[in-house]
Amino acid sequence: MVASSVNHDAFDERAPIARSVFDTSLLPENSRIGIWRETAASVWEISSITDASFFATVDAYHAGELMFGSVTTCAQKTERTSALIAGDSLDYYMMQFYVSGSRVARSRRGEQVFANGDMLMVDMTHAIETESTSYTSFDLVLPRRVLEPLLIDPDALAGQRLVGQHPLTALFRSHLMALYHAAPFMTAGQAMAMQGPTLAMASAALNGNIDPEMASSVRIAAWLPVRRFIEEHLRDMRLSVEQTALEFGISRATLYRMMARYGGFANYLRQRRLHRSRDELVDPSKVHFTIAEIAERWGFANASTYSTAFRELFDMTPRDFRQMARGRGHRMKDMGSESDWSRWLAAMR
Known about the structure:
- By secondary structure, the chain is α+β, with helices and mostly antiparallel strands.
- The radius of gyration is 21 Å and the shape is globular.
- Strands 1-2-4-5-12-7-10-13 form an 8-stranded antiparallel sheet, sandwiched between helices.
- It has helices at 32-40, 82-88, 144-147, 167-182, 188-193, 195-207, 217-232, 241-248, 252-259, 265-281, 291-297, 303-314, 318-333, 341-347, and strands at 3-5, 18-23, 45-49, 56-63, 66-73, 76-80, 92-100, 102-107, 110-115, 119-123, 128-132, 135-143, 161-162.
- The protein starts with a strand and ends with a helix.
- The chain has 2 domains: 3-210, Jelly Rolls; 214-329, Arc Repressor Mutant, subunit A (Orthogonal Bundle), CATH 1.10.10.
């Protein structure tokens, strides 16, 4: 038996937490790499595997919005390309703590090395390349919609490194490892009860490792409600600096200073609307809308201008993104049970 799992059609608080175990040592040696590539395809393209003797073990748990577990595998290179991102339309954060071995990640942040308890923040909507030695990691996966409201700068976390020695990073890592080791003895209800504390620990670590410019508690306290207000009013094309400043009783100059690191108010608004328009491009309930109609819904009266802006942000045209996402959707319908870790990741929204 390669993968084992527990899955329940109806939620039962007293039932064991859902678990999926994948171990290539139980497979014929000549099929291990192929099966690993296929199952990992819900997250990564495996561009190369450098160890002659391949191995990989995944032990994952899933309850509500929470998915966590441990991965041990040999040296390999992985990618999340723009084409893969468009094809799978995943929108979650994956936080990986490396407790043995190391991994090099290349993203818009440049090249960084992760080891000795460091955490890599993978934003599934951003391209990234990695190259690893044999390693063991403890991973946490959370949907963007769940974690984003608690974060100061949710769109700037892709490829971020949280240094293992940082106190908040160490606390977060200890929490995740303790959760993993306790999971075999937990019920589904107990695991669900851990969602709040886990979200709080994750957001504290991520917000506590921000740039010095945003470290002031006053700036943090001011920015979070402003960001939520903007997000809630993105469809209002009359939304302005003046209106937002008035809502929070601050001056326009203060708001401009808060928005400077995002390229200004108008640029931030434009990028957030592009993100939301991208969601609608792959939303089955919006399939009857043309790309031009979706662009107009988000304030882009000119389809050509929208396409250019979309490509600048996502490295792909809206048309190509929609076509690839549709192709991925058809392939996902033909996949097997939702009870394994790969399927959990592919279905995470």
